Amino acid sequence: KLKTVDLLINGAGILDDNQIERTIAVNFTGTVNTTTAIMDFWDKRKGGPGGVVANICSVTGFNSIYQVPVYSASKAAALSFTMSIAKLAHITGVTAYSINPGITNTVLVHKFNSWLNVEPRVAELLLEHPTQTTLQCAQNFVKAIEANQ
């Protein structure tokens, strides 16, 4: 009905360091693949209208959680990819944002596996830190895009 897409939100993510390939595939490769697919449509060098990519990365892209290094690395890779895409906006016409939430109270953080089971209580320990609700995360996500930052 709309005939166009203005905003792509890459928000899929898993947190299970026992599933190394799947974690990388979902958290990083999926982000790259969907962004690449929409670039064929949006790229102004091909006559496209431009657009906005918003990739949900994580604060772990800046400060890894050592008990889940695969998750942290996959989010750091997504962050680096997004920063690169953002620097190409003057060429492609595509604006890119990384949204880097802290600990958000979702099913993702209630029970998950640490790398090589180095810390069986990692979910419990993580939840000892301040968290945000999904609503708070979403509201901040919208504010960041509206502020063009």
UniProtKB/TrEMBL annotation:
- Annotated signal sequence is none
**Family membership noted in the UniProt record:** Belongs to the short-chain dehydrogenases/reductases (SDR) family.
Q: What class of enzyme is it?
A: oxidoreductase
GO MF annotations, alphabetized: alcohol dehydrogenase (NAD+) activity
- PANTHER family membership: 15-HYDROXYPROSTAGLANDIN DEHYDROGENASE [NAD(+)], ALCOHOL DEHYDROGENASE-RELATED
Keywords linked to the UniProt accession:
NAD, Oxidoreductase
Reply yes or no: does the keyword Translocase apply: no
Protein's UniProt name:
Alcohol dehydrogenase
What EC number(s) does its UniProt record assign? 1.1.1.1
Query: What Gene3D superfamilies does the record tag this protein with?
Result: NAD(P)-binding Rossmann-like Domain
Query: What InterPro entries does this protein map onto?
Result: ADH_Drosophila-type (IPR002425), NAD(P)-bd_dom_sf (IPR036291), Sc_DH/Rdtase_CS (IPR020904), SDR_fam (IPR002347)
Q: Which organism is it from?
A: Drosophila setosifrons
Assembly notes: Homodimer.
Q: One GO term of the cellular component aspect?
A: cytoplasm
Query: Which gene does this sequence derive from?
Result: Adh
Q: Name one GO biological process term.
A: alcohol metabolic process
Catalysed reaction(s) here are:
a secondary alcohol + NAD(+) = a ketone + NADH + H(+); a primary alcohol + NAD(+) = an aldehyde + NADH + H(+)
